[in-house]
Design a protein that fits this description.
The structure holds 2 protein chains of 2 kinds. Chain A is of the alpha+beta class. Chain A is built from 9 helices and 19 strands. In chain A, helix 3 packs across helix 4, helix 3 runs parallel beside helix 5 and helix 4 packs across helix 5. The longest helix of chain A has 18 residues. The longest helix of chain B is centred in the N-terminal third of the chain and has 34 residues. Classes of the chains: A alpha+beta, B mainly alpha. Bound molecules: adenosine-5'-triphosphate and magnesium ion (MG). Magnesium ion binds next to helix 1 of chain A.
Chain lengths: ~350, ~270
């Protein structure tokens, strides 16, 4: 039973600030995702939680206990590294057994544990191989096995799937989720892949330049982003943005007109998710956009229209059905007013619901 | 034109190489043949008949046998001192950040090229004061320290190639720094360490000045020093000298054979990445 808390964590590397005033609480048994672009400080955060790196200031708490000075073992964490970090000179069996050997467990115990873990991960056939003789997916499993064998309270995973091809990735993703649910242990999982984050996480924290932008369940952060960055980071295809300027009582651009909106800024940005754009008008309040179709991509269960609005801005529309449309025709499309996000000049959300 | 140029340079290269090969091989051939000769002389004159008597003669001498033993003790002792100290120093230099780290690394690099023999006379005086003069352990310590800078330098570079994440994995897995060295660094750097053992041993085995200056008793002389006693005041027994020289080469050859596998590894890919 462990929850992890970061209080006012700051981290500097020789003068440059990498993490800024980070506050974070990870509940016991939660699958928690740290999501961010490359260089946003995800690994640094994970290393600070693990005790591999010291914060410049601030506290790390495990269950109300400040653990700033404790190492990874005393904190009871296990870690899966981005490049697996298997010991190249040891067989799979000895790689998995390594943590137990370091704590001088008995031979029988080690044997029992290793076969238990290799059973769960389907590694029985590979126990006598060396890491260089494994595929990426197998190496990834060994790395996970080395974490599982110790029975830690908290699992830390640093982009564990990033080196795998798409098919194995989704397969191991499911396995991971099942393992976490069976163990009921706390997982803190780093990724830059928004789909991975959405599908795995109980909660997601979005990190940008060392600052937490938003923390919440996948649906919360998707449906209710606090700023333009979060809105753009989540969603496939990416959200469409339109810049609007104030004209007496409405905001408008060449592409669309929004009426009855009160905001301080004279220039705002409207964010419209591709799936919010419909082919038919449903309500009087729906906002119209004229889009000239350029091409569309079909993905079987859905398709994406790529078109240009009047201003020449590229717009993506996601539709459940495959539409019967011809390229180069202009169509009127409609967006329900309550599905439009509004952001102020500073990128913060101004239409909080 | 072009092909002719190539031909001429190729022929020149072959001539030079053959000449060099002869230069290197001739002494070996002479030493080997002379050791079995009944007549002691220099050059390829009259060798007399084939005989093992030179070998009988040198092994009848108690001091010659002792000198082999001393040579092995001092060379391996010195090697052990260098390697063990270098392992810990290299780990610290490679993995820890501390004040003056760079200055210390540069100092180590400086000493790899320093003519350390210039320190032997002060060493001699110092040794007499601390009662290390004319002792095996005294020679072992000096030999060990002499090879230490280059050993640290090479070993540090090989430790540097071990990925940081493997070290971090060991830390997460509960290995202490000491366990990390034993279970991760040493096995991964083993090809390099094997080569270093070979190089240190060869340097020590061939070192004449250190034991010559720091030892005075005949029964402590290593073979490198003892072999010079065959140059008598009035006459030199060349066939016995040659036989002793052949014996002198054997340990190096044996070590080369053992380390061959690692020599190839160490000089090909850096040898660490699995
Ligand atoms: N040891 C270090 N010394 C100096 N700067 C560092 C160090 N480690 C990380 N940084 C810097 O800190 C920032 C965050 O690095 P971090 O590795 O945490 O990013 P990340 O989010 O994990 O990125 P990625 O997705 O590429 O792994 C980067 O700008 C990086 O250059
Ligand atoms: Mg990273």
């Amino acid at each position: 039973m462990v929850w992890v808390k970061l209080v006012n964590i700051n981290k500097k590397f020789s003068g440059t600030t990498v993490l800024k005033d980070m506050n974070l609480e990870v509940q016991d048994g939660e699958f928690f995702i740290l999501l961010g672009a490359s260089g946003s400080g995800k690994s640094t955060t994970l290393n600070i939680i693990a005790g591999l790196e010291k914060a410049t200031s601030g506290d790390v708490l495990f269950d109300d206990k400040i653990v700033n000075k404790l190492g990874p073992v005393q904190r009871g964490v296990a870690m899966v590294f981005q490049d697996y970090a298997l010991y190249p000179h040891l067989t799979v069996r000895n790689n998995i057994a390594f943590p137990l050997k370091m704590r001088k467990a008995s031979k029988e115990f080690i044997e029992k544990k290793v076969s238990e873990v290799s059973n769960v991960l389907g590694l029985e056939k590979y126990l006598d191989r060396y890491p260089r003789e494994l595929s990426g997916g197998q190496a990834q499993r060994v790395s996970l096995g080395r974490a599982l064998v110790r029975d830690p309270d908290v699992f830390l995973l640093d982009e564990p799937l990033s080196n795998l091809d798409a098919k194995i990735r989704s397969q191991i993703r499911v396995e991971l989720k099942l393992i976490q649910e069976n163990l009921g242990k706390t997982f803190i999982y780093v990724t830059h892949d928004q789909q991975e984050a959405m599908s795995l996480g109980d909660r997601i924290a979005i990190l940008r330049h060392g600052k937490l932008e938003q923390v919440g369940s996948p649906m919360e952060v998707y449906k209710d982003p606090v700023n333009q960055y979060v809105a753009a980071f989540l969603g496939e295809p990416e959200i469409n943005f339109f810049e609007l300027t104030k004209n007496s009582h409405m905001y408008s651009s060449e592409d669309l007109i929004l009426k009855g909106i009160e905001a301080g800024d004279s220039e705002i940005t409207a964010g419209i998710r591709p799936e919010s754009i419909k082919l038919k008008k449903e309500k009087d309040s729906d906002v119209e956009i004229k889009i000239k179709i350029q091409t569309f991509e079909s993905f079987g269960s859905y398709s994406v229209i790529i078109g240009k609005a009047r201003s020449g801005k590229e717009v993506r529309v996601r539709l459940a059905e495959i539409p019967e449309i011809k390229p180069s025709t202009e169509m009127a499309m409609y967006v329900p007013l309550d599905e439009i996000y509004l952001f102020g000049k500073d990128g913060e959300r101004i239409d909080k619901k | 034109m072009k092909t002719e140029d190539i031909k001429i340079t190729t022929i020149l290269a072959y001539i030079t190489l053959t000449f060099l090969a002869f230069l290197f091989i001739i002494p070996f051939v002479w030493v080997f043949v002379e050791g079995f000769a009944s007549v002691g002389n220099i050059g390829f004159g009259d060798f007399g008949t084939f005989t093992l008597s030179s070998y009988y003669a040198i092994f009848r001498s108690k001091y010659f046998v002792l000198s082999i033993e001393n040579g092995l003790i001092q060379s391996f002792g010195g090697t052990a001192v260098s390697i063990v100290l270098a392992i810990f120093a290299s780990y610290v230099f490679s993995r820890k950040r501390f004040p003056l780290r760079n200055a210390l690394i540069l100092t180590v690099l400086f000493f790899t090229g320093f003519p350390v023999f210039s320190l032997l006379i002060p060493m001699y005086v110092f040794y007499q004061n601390v009662n290390l003069y004319n002792t095996q352990i005294g020679v072992i310590l000096v030999l060990g320290v002499l090879n230490l800078p280059i050993t640290i330098w090479i070993m540090k570079n090989s430790f540097d190639q071990i990925p940081k994440s493997i070290e971090r994995a060991a830390m997460v897995d509960g290995a202490s720094p000491y366990q990390t060295i034993i279970h991760v660094f040493l096995p991964l750097a083993f090809p390099t360490i094997a080569v270093l053992i070979l190089l240190d041993f060869i340097t020590n085995w061939g070192n004449f000045y250190v034991p010559y200056i720091l030892l005075s008793s005949r029964h402590l002389f290593p073979i490198a020093v003892y072999i010079y006693t065959y140059f008598g005041a009035y006459s030199v027994k060349y066939n016995e000298l040659a036989a002793a020289s052949v014996i002198y080469m054997i340990p190096t050859l044996i070590l080369y054979i053992f380390a061959q596998k690692y020599l190839i590894k160490a000089f090909s890919v850096g040898g660490v990445k699995g």
